[in-house]
Amino acid sequence: LSVVSVAAGVGAGLAPARHGTRGDLLTPLKGEGVREGSARPGRMRSLLIGVQAAASLVLVVLAALLTRGTIRATHVDIGFDADRLVAIAPDFTRERYDAAKGRAYWMDALDRARALPGVRSASLALHPPYSGGRSVTNLRRNGVHYATYTNEVLPDYFSTLGLRLVRGRTFTDAEVAARAPVVVISETLSRDFWPDLDPVGQTMAPFDGSHDVVIGVVSDAITAHLRERSAAAFYRPLRSFASASMVVRTAGAPEAMVPALRDALQQVDPAVRLDLTLAATGLRGELEEPRIMATLAGALAALALGLAIVGIYGVTTFVTGQRTREIGVRVAVGATRRDVLRLLLADSLRPVAIGMAAGGVIALLSAEVFAAVLYGVGPRDPLAFAIAIAVLL
Question: Rounded to an integer, what distance in angstroms lies between the CA atom of residue 189 and that of residue 109?
Fold first, then answer.
């Protein structure tokens, strides 16, 4: 930063000094206007204005995209109510829990949690909603990889979250115990993979090589990241009990149930450490990143826009002052106020228009970098670009 600051200061001082040493002081004193050979400084001014316009447009576009994405994110339908969900993740590493011991722990823990007043339902999942964990499986469809959210759950996980059963059925306890090759899929996955067929009874073999049979379809849910473009998901019966977490639906405020849930589960094994989190907290965390980025981009865009306004105004004023005699001649021969304004604004806006054209191309390429944090808004969103162009103009 120090090197850049020094270079900028030296450059800002040398540029006008160099121009001054080459100036013709006699001509202005004679009142004869600017020399014919002074076009190079004019071209440099136009270049700087064009660069300012291009940079301003890029930043305003990014600010508009991020702001629209943040607004969209606050209105995303995640498919379930996250306000009264508590996730409980035990640390089994110290106790060296295996699959059998983990299953026994959870059966006892579920009974204790469900018996608590204020608990509406409880279930297990490998990845609770907005807990930071997720699994994605690349299914092959027509030679194209299709990223799909995957989870391992117990049968009552869907009712605990509030997901609607659209078709077929969910797992049975016997299928969980037998590790049966069955899956429940989301509506999006059903539409994408079997648009004209009933998915119930179909196998996943053509897509992942497994022999899993689809037994049911549930409503879509976004349980990991709001930025995900697709709600495609499939759920298998829980197998990894030693890696599972409990998901609890409370009747009232979930914060009030945290101490009771902790006490109930510590009675199962006091040596197991517990991490209790609220799904609503994780969901708010998902909104924090785009909000911060939108605020930062907006501040930078406002600064760039302010600099562009000052630059364009200053250059327009300077050029107008140089052309005072020409304007007087034009007015003398019949030019109107509108004619003079059109002449001067055309000269001022020409480099702006060229800079905006270049900035639009740069913005299209730059926006792709931020595609991952744009919620419900494409990186080439026409409204964001229209807003940015209108604001700059």
Answer: 33
